[in-house]
Amino acid sequence: MESVSHQTHYFVPQPSRWPVVGALALFCLGLGAALAVNGVGFGKVSLGVGFAILFYMLFGWFGDVIRESLKGEYHGKEDTSFRWGMGWFIFSEVMFFAAFFGALFYVRTISVPELGNFEHKLLYPDFAAAWPLSTGPGITQPYQAMAAWGLPAINTLILLSSGATLTWAHWGLIQGKRASLTIGLGATVLLGVLFLSLQAYEYRHAMHELNLTLASGAYGMTFYMLTGFHGMHVLLGAIILAVVWLRVMRGHFNPEHHFAFEAAAWYWHFVDVVWLLLFTLVYWL
Amino acid sequence: MSGKRILLSMLGGVGTVYAADFTFQPPVTPVARQIYDLHSLLLLITVTIFIVVFGVMFYAILRHRKSLGHRARPFHENTTVEIIWTVIPFLILVGMAWPATKAVLAQKSTRAEDMTIKITGYQWKWRYDYLDDGVGFVSHLATPTEALHSASAKGTHYLLEVDEPLVVPTGKKVRLLLTANDVIHSWWVPSLGVKQDAIPGFVRDAWFLVDKPGVYRGQCAELCGKDHGFMPIVVDARTPEDYAVWLAARKKLAAASADDPNKVWALADLKARGEKVFQQNCVACHQANGKGIPGAFPALDGSPIATKDKPAHIDIVLNGSKRNPAMAAWGKQLSDTDIAAVITYERNAWGNHTGDVVQPKDIKAARGGKA
Amino acid sequence: MAISTTAGHAPHAHGKPTGLWRWLAATNHKDIGSMYLWFSFTMFLSGGVMALCIRAELFQPGLQFFQPELFNQLTTLHGLVMVFGAIMPAFTGLANWLLPLMIGAPDMAFARMNNWSFWLLPPAAALLLISFFVPGGAAAAGWTLYAPLATQMGMGMDLTIFAIHILGVSSIMGSINIIVTILNLRAPGMTMMKMPMFAWASLITAYLIIAVMPVLAGVVTMVLTDRHFGTHFFNAAGGGDPVMYQHIFWFFGHPEVYIMALPAFGIVSHIIPTFSRKPLFGYTSMVYATSSIAVLSFMVWAHHMFTTGMPATAQLFFMYATMLIAVPTGVKVFNWIGTMWQGSMSFETPMLFAVGFVCLFTIGGLSGVTLSVAAVDIQLQDTYYVVAHFHYVLVAGALFSLFAAIYYWFPKMTGKMYSEPLGKFHFWWSMIWFNVTFFPMHFLGLAGMPRRIPDYALQFTDFNRIASIGAFCFGLGQLIFLYNMLRSIRHGQAAPHKPWEGAETLEWQIPTPAPYHSFVEAPHVEAGDNGVIHSMTGGAHH
Ligand code: HEA
Ligand code: HEA
Ligand code: CUA
Ligand SMILES: [Cu+2]
Q: Which of A19, A127, A155, B304 has the fewest CB neighbours in a 10 Å radius?
């Protein structure tokens, strides 16, 4: 990533109010969440206020960034910074998911088998370890596991094709084909929404027909936590892409200068890859 | 300790402390001895490294200073030296790893035991079950609460004394199976060279073979909540003959004190019994005056559950709280009689004057006939 | 690409903003750096007061001042506040202040986000401190927040969990900024293998932070769902395992201790060459040693868990891997001594702290190696020996290096000289009382005193008294530092351009105090190892 070498100054923004506003937002969110999980009424209020401030901050901050971008403040160096920044941000996300994949690995290959081994007959004479249907000696409510080759497989296809439509849109952007850009990007967002609707349907099915909940031991908790955090990322990605779509409609990008688009695309592909891992490790194997 | 003595010990003098205080407690098992020697070896190596390395540094500090007119020689690389000081530490480490590996393997060879004891950590006491002999009991801190607050004198074994020590025979390989009931505890007796976490819901093992009769003391070594500092371990190692005598006596005692689950108790008897149970199990949180600790542990004095809703009272003591795991399911630890007693006590102690008597058979019924 | 003039453009022409707004809305790396440093010092004092409460309670056997649950809260918050509030932000603050100056960058790569990273810290600290006042009090499960004890706590635990989330966001953003600044904004001529060691150390530290803070966020989230949403991550009934918490936590936790050590190594690698008036010995091997420490730090985490009962093979693996870290760390120690060897040394306060650092850090490192031997660790785990070990590497390590750094760069930051006699006094005072406080803890641990207990058996009394007296004296000494700083900022003598004869890195090439906007345009430099500047052209500032 060699930057443009003739650039002699680097854009440093003016003092900005958004960071403190954002800090206030997270304070309200943190406090609110801690109170809310303990059933203190004020918690919900604080959460609401926090979200309101957060959205205000996001609008304001991204608005500033977009204005600066349109004014032409960002050149080669700034662009490179954004690329590195986005890349490392995604790396941090990878590590967040790694914690939960690590937990899945651990319960499946270490703790559940151990609970069923000879030594532990001392504590649990009747427990026989099996994945996914018997994931803990204290799980009394029977549940069923989610089958891989129904909805999840369809969702895999959806996400994969959304990756393809996104790439198609990117090609359109680079080659100046506006139609493929707008249609491709729009289709990606819609596929994301479709994915989320199907996942919502899947959760309903899991909870009502399979009796599978967060409390269904090692299988239920890793299933919901992993797919849930992934779903939140799809939601976020879809919102980002929708914003990018709006910006496309307003003509914010040109073939050389469209890092916002690319960042959103990187994020989307990252979410895609996480899903493939999920599909393999949570549903399939 | 007087100011002068403090000064003495601070000046690097031995002062008030004995040489024995500067290292491990005297080991009494083969593994503990191995650890002791290993540590002495490590100490020797690390102190030597320190002296050599900092000898060189202080030499430079004394000689190569500007105030002495020393001129800097601006070299800044020397591959040979770099290789040497990478390889030598590596070799030292290999030398350390060898005896260390042997010690780890010795520690881990837990099988071929002569007897097995199951140890369960509770907040904040230990339960010992002699699996081969069917004897089991709970071991509590014996230091009175007044001594903590300096209202009474502190004995020699302040905080390291229990009402009922773990008695083991010398010369026998004892295998320990450890688990816990609520949070992680760690069973540690320094002289035995054993420290093993007791993990709730899991079983871990460890072993020791004491070769010298004596009383060895240790403590829980994993933060387990409020009274983590107050759950000591005392191991009383006796010759096999003395051990056999103790075991026989202990078995008889157990048979004699077994309760008849169908006995119908009078209020006063049950309340007296319940007070003892309460002292041993519940005071830590709910306090002797029944007022609890506001914000953390509810008051039982005047609580609706302890004065009105009897089934709820039985339920929470038997099955624990769904909301706060600190309130354990005591049904797993205490007998029907003990639970009946403690509930009766709570309903009639402090300002609670319900006059209710809960009989052991009520508890049996509440358990749904299950054990 | 010569950088001849600054004429003709105005993006940086805005002057120094004033008033409160300057700090709230700051985008200037120096302002943000200063805020980090002051915040960190405040946290150090609060954490220190908690430490003094601990030491007061432990002055003699019996319960004097605090009930056990409050004692546990103090221990927990002391650890959390010191680690996340004092040491980590201090290093980020220094990186903010110094990196752009050292590598010739106009500012941090994301100046606005930089401010957010900082301003997230006060809310997180507030959540932590508020938790003392909620029903049930603050978290009391140790700074490691081990489950399932952590699932028993009250609301204070939830506040702590969310505080950790916010701290995580802050330090990840801060680290992204550091990495991107270093990778992308170096002045022409400042190649990676010529960068000063502090830049290298910050780069690698930032990488560690991004790799492990999300893992910490993940594991405390699992505690949260175990507490409130019915999951069984750390509960055997549902197939979870309390030990899994420890694995995930220490996968974060061990790199975390190097996050608090590597920047210290970087700082010392500036100060020792300066005051030895010699280039750093073995620059290249320093870079490689730092990198290998970072890589190794991901493979040793279970040395904190030898007593959980892992299989022998796992114990051996983690033991060997841990011991191995002594090799690259040793290389660093030897390189520092190699730098001092045949130098022309003088011992101003920064150098005193740096030498003190090398000496005491090594003691902590050697006790670390003792702990790494699994069989011996079985006797020492969760005793005061461990407390002694980590205060040698954290207080005499991280904290001393920070003092060294502040004294060293104080003239450049403020344009004033600090009082040298007071600085020297601060060093000797700290050096003596530090050892009085923490050296006896080795003996306490060996003799069998567990950590995290509010009361102890009688045979531990003497050493505890010594430690408590030492702690109060050590703490008092820190007020001297505060006084020296405050007084010198106002009334200190004006500092010369380059107060240290041997200082050769880029930040010493610009005026003192560093102008508000240094390097508006990238300077062109010719540099040697460790960022030593041979010549510089351009680099306008105002
Ligand atoms: C800055 C922080 C820091 C640093 C740098 C280190 C460095 C090291 N630490 Fe430490 N450690 C902590 C902070 C740190 N630690 C903390 C906070 C805890 C406790 C956490 C808790 O439970 O709350 C802890 C706990 C801890 C334990 C667990 C103890 C227990 O709970 O049972 C272990 C065990 O292996 C360990 C080992 C080491 C080792 C081998 C090093 C090595 O990196 C040291 C390497 C350095 C040297 C060895 C000296 C210089 C080298 C030479 C001069 C070369 C020659 C030397 C030889 C050949 C030996 N540490
Ligand atoms: C990261 C850095 C760091 C730092 C800098 C310190 C600094 C100190 N620590 Fe800390 N400590 C930890 C990290 C740190 N600690 C961690 C991670 C733990 C483990 C927690 C756990 O178990 O979970 C721990 C645990 C710990 C314990 C064990 C507690 C227990 O197990 O119950 C003790 C006990 O003595 C202790 C003492 C001290 C002391 C005396 C200082 C001193 O250096 C502090 C000096 C500073 C001051 C005193 C403040 C400045 C002065 C004033 C505000 C003026 C007022 C002063 C006077 C009037 C005298 N620490
Ligand atoms: Cu039990 Cu600590
Ligand atoms: Cu470690």
A: B304
